[in-house]
Structures are given as C-alpha cells and as structure tokens.
Amino acid sequence: MNPNITYNTSELIVQASQKKTKKEKAEYLRVNKTDAMLDILRGTFDDRIRFLVPTGWDVPFTASEGHNHPTTLSKMHRQFMYLCNTPAGNKLPQVQRERKYIEILEGIHPNDATLVIDMVNKKAPKGITKAVVKEAFPGLLPE
User: Fold this and answer.
1) Are 73 and 138 in contact (CB under 8 A)?
2) What is the rounded distance in angstroms from the CA atom of residue 8 to the CA atom of residue 6?
C-alpha cells in the first residue's frame, strides 16, 4: 500500500473484490491489511460474534459528508467491542450501545458506514467470501 495515500476501508475491500481470482483477492487483502479491515471481515464472517445493536438498514443516523467526515474507521473500529457479545459490550446498557453505534456511523466516511451496517447484518462485501478471507488471513476465522 502506498503510505502517502489514505484509503477508506471500503475502498480497499472494493478494490480487492474487483480482482479476478480468489488468490488475487486474498493477496490484495493481505498486502493492504489494516486493523479496521480485519475487524470488519471478522465481524462479518465469524459466526461467534453476535451484534447487540438492531439489525437492518434503517439505522437512524445522519451520514457525514464524504469529503468532510470527522474521523476514520481506522480509529473507530476499536469501538466495535461495545456493539457485540464481548465483556465490554455485555456491560454497556442498550441505549448507550446504540448511541455508540450511531456515533461510529456518523463519524466515518459514508461508504465505511455502509460497510459497518453490512457487518452488523452479517452481509458479506460483494465479491469477498469467507474462503477468500481464510486464504488471506489464516487463523482469523474459526474452522
């Protein structure tokens, strides 16, 4: 990855999905790996992770402007632990958990927000399969 260019996580996943073969997709993901990407892929494909926020695509949030979002998914992905069945997530009252979910969505690029909503709904990014993720990152997902 070019260190002088900042990519949104959604852009990296879209670029990977446009590769022709599973091997090329896996290699692209591996070379361009970020912690945020790993969390999105783990949250999407790991059946042990259950999100404790409402599912569906009608989340009541106001998307940020694409050119002027206050933060990035690379910073906000650390907050995912409050949205799912983790010790931190289980301790948080439901109202605060849902508020945190909306704060994440409103703070990041709109395409990344869509990626997060898809993750919560366990909807795989177009062109990216569990097999691609397992090839790219052995050990990330359970067998």
Assistant:
1) no
2) 7
Reference 101, options 87, 90, 116; nearest CA is 116
Of residues 128, 141, 124, 123, the one with CA closest to residue 24? 128
pLDDT of residue 57: 85
Euclidean distance between CA atoms 119 and 49, whole angstroms: 10
Place of tokens 């996580």: 9
**Whether 36 contacts 105, CB under 8 Å:** no
Of 1 and 35, the structure prediction assigns the larger pLDDT to 35
Question: Residue 84 — φ and ψ, nearest 5°?
Answer: -130, -175
The per-residue pLDDT for range 79-97, each reduced to its tens digit, is 999 999 999 999 999 999 9
Residue identified by tokens 């999407």 is: 44
Contact 137, 29 (CB under 8 A): yes
Name the one residue in this structure whose structure tokens are 């896996």.
Answer: 26
